[in-house]
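Give me the fold.
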Amino acid sequence: MSGTPAPTMYAVASGDRLKLLMERTGTGAPVSARKLAAAAGVAHGTIGALMSGAQRTVTEDKAKAIAARLGVDLLVLFIPMERAGRAFIPAQVVA
């Protein structure tokens, strides 16, 4: 089989962490879900779903774009998943 390998997926570490980082980005200014989505090039619903836990993963390019807009390192917010068929998806952190 030849072809393009599936993109690496990244799981959000915590919806609460995403919310916190949106309240105080790397610049110190808050960002709304709509503005974050527009700046990162993702659907507004994606940001809301990541915050609520309804969606756990995004592709590497989306994860990088979200982290960059928030002004944080990729691994502060996302966890890379395994590529070997088994996916590691962390449980939501309960506050």
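DSSP finds five helices and three strands in the chain.
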